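User: Design a sequence. Structure:
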């Protein structure tokens, strides 16, 4: 199926030209980009410790990643405009968000790359949170490959409470694993745990 455009094509063309500057500025080191499929629907599942994480993932990804973002961000005027142009869509963090789930499944069928944070929110520095069950529910309803990603260092560069990133303070490492083999008939809570464990092991 041909993809329906839901983000700024000109914006992403410009972004892909300038992002090497941000990669160097933020001292991002990445391995495993070959594990992200060049085309077709896929899910990027990453740990989450900083608001910088979605930005960094789109710095290193060979294709645009459309993120589920907490609905509160869409109430901030300038930021809301920017993330909409990047293709982000809102999700409610408390309980199951059926609308966001349907949106994600539609985008996956149309061939987009969706970014999710199984923990549902930022973890404390150097730690991991338990995954949300909704992630497993989403994965159980699609055959799209799930690519585990582990990010380290963003919580040093842009910790919770900071107004601006502390550029150059720490190297940011991104490790991208091979697609996870998942039994999609399993309980969705177990699927969530399995995905989180694969992220931790990277």
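Assistant: Done.
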């Amino acid at each position: 199926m041909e993809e329906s455009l839901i983000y700024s094509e000109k914006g992403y063309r410009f972004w892909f030209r300038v992002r090497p500057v941000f990669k160097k500025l933020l001292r991002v080191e990445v391995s495993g980009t070959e594990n992200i499929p060049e085309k077709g629907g896929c899910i990027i599942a990453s740990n989450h410790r900083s608001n910088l994480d979605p930005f960094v993932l789109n710095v290193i990804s060979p294709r645009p990643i459309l993120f589920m973002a907490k609905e509160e961000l869409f109430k901030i005027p300038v930021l809301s405009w920017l993330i909409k142009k990047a293709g982000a869509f809102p999700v409610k963090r408390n309980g199951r968000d059926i609308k966001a789930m349907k949106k994600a499944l539609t985008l996956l069928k149309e061939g987009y790359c969706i970014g999710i944070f199984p923990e549902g929110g930022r973890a404390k520095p150097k730690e991991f949170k338990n995954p949300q069950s909704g992630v497993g529910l989403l994965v159980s309803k699609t055959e799209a490959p799930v690519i585990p990603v582990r990010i380290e260092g963003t919580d040093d560069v842009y910790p919770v409470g900071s107004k601006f990133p502390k550029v150059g303070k720490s190297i940011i490492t991104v490790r991208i694993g091979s697609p996870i083999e998942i039994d999609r008939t399993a309980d969705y809570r177990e699927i969530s745990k399995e995905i989180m464990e694969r992220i931790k092991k990277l």
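Residues 1-5 have pLDDT under 50 and may be disordered. The beta strands are 28-31, 42-46, 66-70, 89-91, 113-116, 146-152, 172-176.
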